[in-house]
Task: inverse folding
């Protein structure tokens, strides 16, 4: 059996999840990997057959996605060519982790595409929504990487199609300790802005992992260093608490390690606001922005001792077995009366 696995390359969570999933897929057949996007700091330790530009989001330095840089970086003609030239017909099973080229190529060819991502779970009827409605964000999330049927991950299982997070082996093997520092990963904020607000808490040691710095340095009680997987894991495993955006990867790992967690969802990222809604429902602290107005909330979080209890078993093998047995060798799309992509396909 030939399997195509499309992985979103924006951010690190999709890549770290893929590292766990790919060996299980390889037990069922030949796996070709497609990665699109340009913002991950982690490399897959597997051969990538297709490396595409795709449709990437660009992180800004003021707390969210840089909409204008994302727009200007969009190469629509290149994206359409990638979709058009991908040899999708030769695959017996197509799985997409919020990856648009594989999803659109499959649908254009009339082949089923199975979604396996956190983004799918955020749109589940049982998943909480943000208090503020974002119709455009929901529309983008629904159509960015359309799939025939979706399986998702959320911070808690919702039904037979929505599972608890995949936790990478390196995290499962950590022995959590508490050495007094706090680990910070906020890639959509500048180092300057993070330092400005966190150094006010003079008694706290902050270990800040930066997407914007190429070298490590220190300012007062803030230690800044470039993102490095092993160093980040060491800091995460030995910290007192974690401040990060509301992406799925770091938050899930912090909960698994029973770390105190504070999330700041990125602006213009509907998915992250959905994640924050679920985390808030579970008892995790959340603030809208890193600013002076929210310093008291950060201070109260530092003083708190409450840990949110979760149970995240290692069920990756069972998830992949379910998908393969249910969907391998489906040659054509089932009839779908509620969605039509024909107008979009005319431009491909």
Result:
């Amino acid at each position: 059996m030939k399997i195509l696995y499309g992985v979103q390359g924006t951010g690190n969570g999709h890549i770290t999840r893929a590292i766990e999933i790919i060996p299980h897929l390889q037990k069922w057949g030949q796996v070709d990997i497609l990665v699109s996007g340009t913002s991950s700091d982690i490399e897959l330790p597997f051969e990538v057959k297709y490396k595409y530009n795709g449709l990437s989001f660009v992180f800004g330095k003021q707390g969210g996605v840089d909409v204008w840089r994302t727009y200007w970086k969009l190469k629509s003609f290149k994206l359409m060519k990638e979709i058009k030239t991908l040899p999708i017909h030769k695959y017996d099973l197509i799985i997409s982790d919020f990856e648009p080229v594989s999803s659109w190529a499959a649908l254009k060819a009339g082949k089923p595409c199975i979604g396996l991502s956190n983004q799918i779970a955020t749109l589940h009827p049982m998943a909480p929504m943000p208090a503020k409605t974002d119709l455009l964000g929901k529309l983008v999330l629904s159509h960015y990487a359309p799939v025939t049927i979706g399986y998702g991950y959320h911070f808690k299982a919702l039904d037979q199609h929505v599972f608890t997070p995949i936790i990478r082996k390196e995290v499962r093997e950590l022995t959590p300790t508490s050495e007094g520092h706090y680990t910070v990963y906020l890639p959509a904020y500048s180092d300057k802005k993070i330092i400005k607000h966190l150094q006010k808490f003079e008694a706290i040691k902050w270990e800040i992992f930066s997407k914007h710095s190429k070298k490590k340095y220190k300012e007062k009680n803030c230690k800044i260093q470039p993102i490095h997987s092993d160093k980040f894991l060491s800091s995460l495993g030995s910290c007192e608490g974690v401040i990060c955006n509301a992406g799925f990867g770091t938050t899930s790992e912090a909960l698994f390690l029973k770390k105190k967690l504070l999330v700041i969802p990125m602006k213009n990222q509907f998915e992250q606001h959905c994640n924050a809604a679920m985390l808030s429902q579970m008892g995790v602290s959340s603030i809208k922005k890193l600013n002076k107005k929210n310093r008291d909330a950060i201070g109260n979080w530092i003083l708190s001792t409450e840990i949110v209890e979760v149970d995240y078993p290692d069920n990756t093998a069972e998830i992949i077995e379910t998908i393969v047995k249910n969907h391998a060798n489906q040659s054509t799309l089932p009839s779908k009366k509620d969605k039509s992509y024909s107008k979009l396909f005319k431009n491909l």
